[in-house]
User: Which sequence fits this backbone?
């Protein structure tokens, strides 16, 4: 289990128990669009409230399946940034019904799902453990369903526009992240008048080869094996910035 996925699972479960035990807590922390100026904290706190056991179960199940690999790919700070951005944009899109309270981690979790599909679009998941579908088509299908239900005025008590906001927030976050990463990559190429020295490259490879495998999460271990195999097959110059950051992060543990 990666750090922030574990913390978010824990926080959501704790808050679910607390709202059952403390009367009025859920009302104080839910997001009501029309009250955003007087209750700005609810843009974040609403993500940790749920309306029932089924609500929290399916949100946490999706976070458990899609979150660890995405956090390993982005790094913990960026993963948390994507999660919170998706949830906040999900809340903002709920202004279509300004007086109706919104609760749930669905917007944030939908953002995590979108992030997963962004990096591994052809990964196959099994809906209800039976129906195989590529993640990219799962996101497309859920977008269409949310659009139809949202604009159709479905009275099912589900914040469909918050779901769409989760996708939108993740899309915006990843666009900004990709541009920032691309700008750093361009600056690095402009500054480097010559290729990195053999000594520097050799020391980096030696450091990466000493990464401790014991105690690594299976998701991180799988990614480590893939990147190291690519390194041995194609050389350090063929590694992406993200792959180098991944190796650096775990070489400094």
Assistant:
């Amino acid at each position: 289990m990666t750090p922030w996925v574990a913390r978010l699972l824990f926080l959501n479960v704790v808050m679910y128990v607390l709202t059952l035990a403390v009367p009025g807590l859920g009302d104080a922390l839910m997001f009501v669009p029309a009250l955003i100026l007087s209750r700005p904290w609810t843009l974040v706190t609403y993500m940790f409230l749920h309306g029932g056991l089924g609500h929290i179960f399916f949100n946490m199940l999706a976070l458990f399946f899609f979150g660890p690999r995405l956090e390993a790919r982005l790094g913990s700070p960026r993963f948390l940034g994507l999660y919170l951005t998706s949830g906040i944009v999900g809340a903002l899109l709920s202004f279509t019904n300004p007086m109706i309270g919104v609760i749930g981690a669905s917007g944030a979790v939908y953002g995590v799902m979108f992030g997963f599909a962004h990096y591994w679009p052809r990964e196959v998941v099994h809906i209800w453990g039976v129906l195989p579908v590529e993640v990219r088509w799962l996101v497309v299908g859920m977008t269409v369903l949310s659009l139809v239900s949202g604009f159709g005025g479905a009275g099912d008590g589900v914040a469909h526009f918050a779901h769409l906001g989760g996708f939108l927030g993740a899309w915006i976050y990843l666009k900004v992240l990709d541009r920032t990463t691309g700008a750093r990559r361009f600056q690095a190429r402009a500054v480097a008048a010559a290729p990195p020295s053999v000594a520097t490259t050799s020391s980096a490879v030696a450091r990466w080869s000493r990464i401790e495998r014991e105690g690594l999460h299976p998701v991180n271990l799988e990614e480590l094996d893939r990147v190291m195999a690519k390194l041995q097959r194609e050389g350090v110059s063929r590694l992406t910035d993200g792959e180098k950051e991944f190796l650096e992060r775990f070489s400094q543990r």
